[in-house]
Amino acid sequence: MRNKKTILSASVLFFLGVYTYGQEKDSIKTNKDSIKTNNVEEIVVLGSRAGARSKTDSPVPVDVFNVKESSIILPQTNIGQILNAVAPSFTSTIQTNSDGTDHLDPAQLRGLGPDQVLVLVNGKRRHTSALVNVNGTPGRGTVGTDLNAIPSFALNRIEVLRDGAAAQYGSDAIAGVINLDLKRDTGKLAGQISYGGNLTPTANDHTGDFDGQNIQLDLNYGNKIGTKGGFFNITWSSQFRNPTYRAGTENGPIYNAYNAIEQRALNDGVNLSSLFTNIGNTPNSQQIVNYVHQYAQNVNYFSQELQNSIQGANTISALQSILKPGNFTREQLNYFTDQELAYRGQSRKDYNMQVGQSKLNNHQLFINAELPINDNWKVYTFGGYSLRHGTSGGFYRRPSESRTFTGLYPNGYLPQIGTDIQDISLAAGVKGKWDGWNIDFSNTYGQNSFTYNIQNTGNTSLRFDSPREFNAGGLRFSQNTINLDFSKKYDVWEGINVAFGAEHRYENFKITQGEEASYQTYDQFGNIWNGDPSQRATDFFGLPLPGGSQVFNGFKPENAVDKNRQSVAAYADVEFNFTNWLLVDAAARYENYSDFGSTFNYKLASRIKVAPNFNVRFAGSTGFRAPSIHQIYYNVTSTLFTNNQLLEVGTFSNDSQLAGLLGMPKLKQETSKSASVGFTYKIPSAGLSFTADGYFTRIDNRIILTDQFLRKDVPSDAQKEYDKLNVNGAQFFTNAIDTETKGLDVVISHNVRFSGIKLDNNFAINLNKTKQVGDIHSAGLLQSPQLEKVYFSEKSRVYLEEAVPRVKASLSHTLSWKDATFYLRNTYFGKVTGADIIDVNGDGIIDFNEHQPIGDKIITDISAAYQFTKNVGLTLGVNNLFDIYPTKNLTASTNNDQFIYSRSTSQFGQNGRYVFARLNFNF
């Protein structure tokens, strides 16, 4: 901790020191140019259709990150983690034990949702992911963009517009816009080979050493096409990432008394599970009783009293009564477990879950090309292909559980969720000038798909006939966007830019059913179960064996959908430079969707140059986010046997029969009102720039995923509708809440050159607070004050308001001298709140809003690069130098010591120190 504070303090003092030095040099009039400052400002095009301008002259806040240069020195290698490290207003953290979300990191801007930030590539709308985030993580119920489907090595820079921009760019741009600008380099082959891993005492389930090994190869090649400025640039990236293991030591019961007897029989060649299918009507019950009597005597840690009881029981039901786990205390079951582990030569860590980052193999190809037709027109294309295979762990299926068929798995098993994520994109267009107008006509297509392959698992109801791997179906989202854009500058006042255009967008969402065994329940004869409880396959204690692939049930035929929609839009954007000190930008956009109707939005922004280097800027806008087509049609249900009935539970789509019978309203757009005010200030002689922007965003009718409305809890009229469709529990996507977000962004940049040394210092901080305001928008037959905590539960509130840091800051320094570059960054992650409702203060009372606070931390990254020749260089570095971890979970949230750290927050992850080496080359 002392070292951490020392480095942070030294960074601050150094920053202030060079600022003071720059001020002093500015005040001394001398002819000797002993200091050369870098007066070339970063130019931005995002946020305006009038062309490039310096980012301090922009009427809205825009950050620019030069990825091409920083990729040599930064510890992070994918877009999400790069932005999480360098942009305080951006948050993205690797998730764990959250199904498909383990392989796609939800990304948020200014504390708003992953679906409330628009992503562009080369200024064109990027498609979103096929995945719907339905698990217990920040961004629950949203559909974000898969930033990591694009190789960061293909990028020239990233622009982040931190302001509502739906009136300019359309749906989703409530929090802002991220534009990924692709490389245009020609005449060389550049590449890097990176190797790293987590060197930390907590590696390998807190036994230490090294895990999470990561090997990555990036190649980029570009060349000219013709002699008039045409080019192509192509990038290939391959990543092989091992998992990390951060579980503690499983401390709950693993084996019961029957498991011990079963293992002794198995050692003698007798598989007790082969002697019955339904224990309640097996014809050879006496044979089973005899075997239990025989092999129980071989369990030497059973007490004499227990042995006597077993030998005295002469029926199956009598043995069940004696051996059932409910007859024993947790301490007794743990005693059985410890003894049985020793007998089998196992340890408790053998039963740990795989908690940490998932295993990942990722291959990406991206291209960017342009070809002039003549002096005024050019055609262009860009796009890529990405294939990512991920494997993550679920919850361990212990031998003592009825969902584990011990006839096949006497030691239980750890099921694996495998995902194949395929991403395809291609944009093509023509742009040029005609009669003073800039014209751009383009078509952009994108598709993202998730296919689930569940491994090392089983359909328990199939017993010995169960496969160990299942195709559980998948999700696919496709989008095609046609744009026609016009802009022209007029020589009026200090310049007027007029822009207008139109857009057509087509979207398709598809759910593909899994193979039959991935979702179906079978009876004792191996046929599809008809609902007769007497025909169920059971375990020894008579508990029914569940169907479907364990850890992730496949999508059923009735879940399969293939839906599409269209939208058309028209916009106008006029920028007035009334004088050289007053700029006003006005934009308006009309958009109509085939599934919910139309929306009209506008924006007004202005920049006032109070002094040559001091600007004041402000903006106000309305915005919207159309409900994702996924949110309208996504559904996944399971059939459970409850109260002697086959009943459905799960997520029902917004257009389902149940939603209609309950009077759930059709999803409509979220609407927003945003306002921001700020200033920019430059001191060119000192190489300093300051920006500060306060903002406010009000979002009405925000779409959320509710919790389960159980039949027993809903009003009687709703129960009747549940009964008509044999439903026991349902959750829905609905426009249920309104929110307000307030925040402040401050960015200070400094750069200077002296005596061959180049120094860049950057400080940025984001403060934000999001809260739910007003009443819950309950509706139809589920409109009841008692159900408001189901519409928007306490856990959902935490995910929305407190699971992402309200304060995040970074201070970085890059020092270059000759062929060497040194990099130091400290990032402050503010406190967050765990979503679990537990007894935090230990008073024995659990309040409805009692959550564990998770403390703030500072993460230090450091790296050094040296260019040995003009073609070859080497980078060494450490991310999280001091091996900082989040606050440990209280016992109630650890799931038997498996989740040492929270898996429901988004701070900086739980992987610990990461060390790496990177070989850079170009020819």
Distance between the termini: 44 Å
- The low-confidence parts are 1-41
Radius of gyration: 30 Å
Structural category is mainly beta
Query: What kind of sheet is the major sheet?
Result: 22 strands, antiparallel, barrel
Annotation, overall tally of beta strands:
38
DSSP helix count?
A: 16
Residues in β-strands, percent: 35-45%
Arithmetic mean of pLDDT: 90
Percentage of residues assigned to helices: 10-25%
Oligomer: single chain
Describe this entry's structure for a reader.
- Mean pLDDT is 90; it is low at 1-41.
- The two termini are 44 Å apart.
- Helix 6 packs across helix 7 (285-296).
- A hairpin with an 8-residue loop joins strand 2 and strand 3 (53-54).
- With 923 residues, this protein is mainly β.
Topology at a glance:
Layout: H1 2-27, E1 35-36, E2 43-44, E3 53-54, E4 62-65, H2 67-70, H3 79-86, E5 90-92, E6 107-109, E7 117-121, E8 124-125, E9 155-161, H4 166-169, E10 176-182, E11 188-199, H5 203-206, E12 210-225, E13 230-241, H6 257-267, H7 285-296, H8 304-311, H9 316-323, H10 330-344, E14 359-372, E15 377-393, E16 416-434, E17 437-455, E18 470-490, E19 496-512, H11 516-519, E20 561-577, E21 582-593, E22 597-611, E23 614-625, H12 629-633, E24 636-642, E25 645-651, H13 657-662, E26 670-683, E27 688-705, E28 709-710, H14 716-724, E29 727-731, E30 733-754, E31 757-773, H15 788-791, H16 794-801, E32 807-817, E33 820-829, E34 832-833, E35 853-854, E36 857-867, E37 872-879, E38 914-922
Helix pairs in contact: 6-7
